[in-house]
């Protein structure tokens, strides 16, 4: 195993950039899926090392950013109830709803708590049997195993006061939606290494073959990303469309089978609306009927609703790779981290937050 510094080695990065410049003969557009990769690209200036003919665009790889506005509004409604203790990862507290966010609920006296694991919320429920404890289950396949284990633990403890507001989303259907869009310009993908560490990458093969796009499973350090770009561009130049694994130190083809088992037991695949993108078929996870007692939407009788995004926010186009944060007239002016118009300016993995922090 290499030391982490080797994946941030400047000489190795420059050598890879030189190899890419030597390789490419025409313009190419590659999308990185993961928001963590986006932050590394912007922070370390990886895109600025590449030739002008290579364009990196940023995908919907931030689960906080794609959590639909309607679900944020449901979270705010639940968290505002006096009998509820609402637990969430920290990024979600600043995500704007229609008129306020979860942090505003907390400031007004709501019992809103930041937790670092869904199992922490189970512990809160066990220690406070007279409180309704709700965990905001947001994330890609990466966090789904821990959430599934929390449900199994709550069932084992027979906790009648624990539930989930579920907003899990799946990466491959989002890639399909991007490639099928009439305004798509993506010719190759850097797949999210942490998602593939859990789920493997066998399901990417049909996508690569169907749309004739190379997909390279890629890590998060600068050398990782440049290696992923190099592998992807080499396929494009050679007319190939295959799945390759740059992140072999952490990812196996079949993924983590032990982590997949509780996800399959607790969740089923469902349609899911993505904020700024719209509904994508078979792109989410919902609780199976056997665990419906832990569904906060059912428990609190929350009806379906429609909420409109601020017309000034172009986060949907940014999440689809159609535009960049700097293309938004509100960026850095009327949309800043302290007063965001959309979730990509709030999340630690949001593209707008990355550009504001490192390129503003």
Protein traits:
single chain, 360 residues, alpha/beta, six-stranded mixed sheet, five-stranded parallel sheet, 11 strands, 18% strand
Descriptive report:
- The chain is α/β, with parallel strands linked by helices.
- The protein has a domain at about 315-360.
- The chain has helices spanning about 10-25, 35-45, 45-50, 65, 70-80, 100-105, 120-125, 145-155, 170-180, 195-200, 205-210, 220-240, 255-265, 295-300, 315-320, 350-360; strands at about 30, 55-60, 85-90, 110-115, 130-140, 160-170, 190, 215-220, 245, 265-275, 280-285.
- The strands form 2 sheets. It has a 6-stranded mixed sheet with strand order 4-3-5-6-11-10, with helices on both faces.
- Strand 10 and strand 11 (about 280-285) form a beta hairpin.
- Helix 1 runs parallel beside helix 12 (about 220-240), helix 7 packs parallel to helix 8 (about 145-155) and helix 8 (about 145-155) packs across helix 13.
- The longest helix has 17 residues, at about 220-240.
- The radius of gyration is 21 Å and the shape is globular.
- The two termini are about 35 Å apart.
